[in-house]
Design a protein that fits this description.
Length: about 210
Amino acid sequence: MPITRRTLLALSAGAIASLAGCAGGEPEPEPSLGPGAQTQPVQLRITVPASYLAFTGNTADEAALDYADYSDGGIGTSVLDDGSLELYVTDHWYGQLRAMWEDELDKSLDSLGAGDDVASVEVAEGHEAVTVTARPSFAEHADADLYRLVAACGFLQILDPESDWQGDWAVEVALVDAETGAEVARAALPVEELSYSRESWDEAVSAGA
């Protein structure tokens, strides 16, 4: 059966959904007067698009609660009509979120690269592309670490004030055969579907021979 985003999300729904709000270690708490209250002036407004929340198996309302819990009310939120979520953060909480997602990126890279069937994993500097060079056996199991990596790349795009993502996010994922260098699958998530199987992998390698 082909491995698709739907398969990966079904297998790791709990883990990936948690990434929308409160993954990572415990943050340093700040005093709060209640949900959404700020102890410092808000410096940044960050929009988490509905497409990202859907990719991580979450909704804006659920994520808003996660951020309130994560920050003890230090991060303000607004649910938008299109299903997106706006975050209102101080410099402190921006730094906390960025550190959390950079840590998640590193953990996902380490976990994905630790498998015997993965030769290397490369992430573009702007987090807009991921290349996994692997052996055909990679196609024989669903690797949720790949989608956790994509989720981390996507959120770091959202957090980057100099990113040119302009209202939405995208991570292009390429799978490359380690023996031949043949590209066996490519998709720009979340718009496209990354689908691969041992059969399609072997076909791509044969076509490139």
